Amino acid sequence: MDMDGFWDLVESSALGGDACGRADRLTARLAELPLPQVLEFQLRLDEARAPLDTPGTLAVAKLVERGRVTDDSLWYFHVWLIGLGRETHHLAVHEPDALAGLPAFRRLAALPYEQWENHDFPDWESLDYCAHDAYAQLTGEEDGLEEALEAIGHDSPCNAEFDEPVWTPEQSAARLPRLTALFADAP
What global pTM score does this model have? Predict the structure, then answer.
């Protein structure tokens, strides 16, 4: 599976339903594919996530989540960005301040954090399990995907690791002026 195939699956899973239903649809679609394709989907997911492991993405998450970012919430923020599609992912990697113009970000800025329901949080944790669940359905092995990935020398990342220092609030404001303005008065 190449990146185009990966993005086609991710984006087509968004057609109808909530995030939980979306993960079920994606898992079902993956379970229809040959086993190597399921493995490759996970490889492409890890590949899509890698360029998001930056202080810039952390700064975006801190703005969106009003500073309430943990290792887990950052991880799930990454897959939420991926779930928003190829174009959003491209912006997040190459032009993160442009995310301020997207409806998903504008909606979160307008919604008081204390009123967020589970479906409002910018995460799609279940995307992280789709390939694992499909692999288990096809093989009957609960941990089979991890073992198959290890067998080919792939170690899936588990927490963000940055090659550069985390941005200060001043650096974030200078590098993300539109997002900073959007979330500056966020309730």
Answer: 0.93
Longest pairwise C-alpha distance within the chain: 51
Within 9-139, strands assigned E span none
Into how many domains does the chain fold?
Answer: 1
> What does the pLDDT look like over 45-102, one tens digit per residue?
999 999 999 999 999 999 999 999 998 999 999 999 999 999 999 999 999 999 999 9
* pLDDT tens string 16-27: 766 668 999 999
Alpha carbons 50 and 16: distance in angstroms, whole number: 28
Q: Give kind and range of the element (H or E) at residue 89.
A: helix 86-94
Burial label, 117 (beta-carbon count in 10 A; 0-12, 13-18, 19+) = exposed
- If DSSP states are collapsed to H, E and C, what string results for 137-187? HHHCCCCHHHHHHHHCCCCCCCCCCCCCCCCCHHHHHHHCHHHHHHHHCCC
Q: Which residues of 147-156 are buried (b: 16+ CB within 10 A; e: fewer)?
A: ebbeeeeeeb
Whether residue 105 contacts residue 185, with contact meaning beta carbons closer than 8 Å, is answered with no
In sequence order, the 6+-apart residues with CB closer than 8 A to the CB of 117 are: none
Domain limits for position 95: 3-185
Q: How far is CA 70 from CA 30, 73, 98, 177, in A?
A: 30, 5, 24, 23
